[in-house]
Design goal:
The structure is a single chain. This protein has 336 residues and is mainly beta. The strands form eight sheets. The protein has a four-stranded antiparallel beta sheet with strand order 1-31-30-29, with no helix packed on it. The chain has a four-stranded antiparallel beta sheet with strand order 2-3-4-5, with no helix packed on it. The longest helix is centred in the C-terminal third of the chain and has 10 residues. The protein is globular, with a radius of gyration of 20 Å.
Amino acid sequence: MNFEGHTDWVSGLSVLDDGSLLSWSRDGTLRRWSSDGHELTRFEGHMSWVNGVLCLNDGSLLSWSGDKTLRRWSLDGRTIARFEGHRELVNGALVLDDDSLLSWSWDGTLRRWSHDGHELAHFKGHTNWVNGALVLYDGSILSWSQDNTLRRWSRDGSELACFKGHTNSVHGALVLNDDSLLSWSRDGTLRRWSHDGDELTRFEGHTAEVFYALALNDGSLLSWSWDGTLRRWLPDGTELAVLDTSSADNSAIAVWAHTQQLDVNVLFATWADPSIASSSVAKRNNEVVLYNTTSGETQANFINDANITCLAVLDNKIVVAGDQAGRVLFLRHEGI
């Protein structure tokens, strides 16, 4: 079945604690649905597309938008607080351990907020839009940007370190087991850093931008690139293995993973979509695929008439897909 309602493509899906489903869209709304297809709540107020949503500890929802604002909502659709200050699209947000909220924007800044919408700190330094941020073990904040740098900040907005070396925009970062930091970039490289901003290792081999990376339990690293390859590395930059995924189906990826003694479930889940809880579901253009995580063989698929934009898996084993036409599709299969 499908839930009609959004008038532009569905940007994201999330399963809430009560089992209902939340969707958000380029039409500027969020919508909460029951698993049997009824719209429970419509959240209206944003004046441009909704980029993301997260659930706060008190049960309220935080959304951020192309209208330069964030909003906090009750589950009945009421706006509890509006967060104004960013001058461009808000690109992301997270909750800090003191329960304050951190957002980042195309205006090149990060901002820290109270739950009622008061700005607590303003992080200035990036010269282009901020792509992401994470909280480090010492409580400081790491951000990365289209300005080719990463920066580390204290909670009050003071810049502690600037990480320079990438020659194009930085797409992501994570913390490794030894507490060093790994970043990846449109320049085709990954780099490992100290917390002071010193480059420790450069990972070279990809010939196009790196769009995702993952640290494995054995300490090795995996990276994905638009050059069509999946590469495995040692932390010292040594390349261990390469798989050309441009001509590889899931079966070939499974065989490669087994030869590398990798966890196939982790590999498939990340390769398909890092936000998916089930490792057996993937999206490809207008197709949803259910596959065997041991062999990689396709068990079932669904062909849509519009591209699939996002996926979620409900507790009752229903796969939910959002598409570019604004629909939310509920798909049931016993093999999930």
